[in-house]
Predict the 3D structure of the following.
Amino acid sequence: MNDVTQPQDNKLLKRGIIGSMIAAVCCFTPLLVIAFVGVGLSGLIGGLDYFLFPMLFASLGVVAYALYVRSGQIGPSPKTTIAILALAFSAVLIWLEFKYALRISFAAVGLVALYGFYLNSAKTRNAAR
């Protein structure tokens, strides 16, 4: 990979990680609830999860795509698969009425981590050839 695209790849990865962290903090702590109550928007608290969890899964999708780009784009483009998985995770979580939100979120993070390990090992194998 040339040196011109490397900083852009790092930016995409950093933005995906930051977005995931912000969504996770807002999903799993009362930080956003306290802020909404403090500003007088407590009526919107009930709908926060319908926005935050899809944002978390979309941000994890950005991380997965950034890892793909950073790896030298090994294999077919995962854009469609990432979009379908983000929608599926969001739909399942909403369908289950957020009962297993922590487990499903950890599963999504685990899939992104496994994908990153797969890409790293494939990159190493290709470099050895």
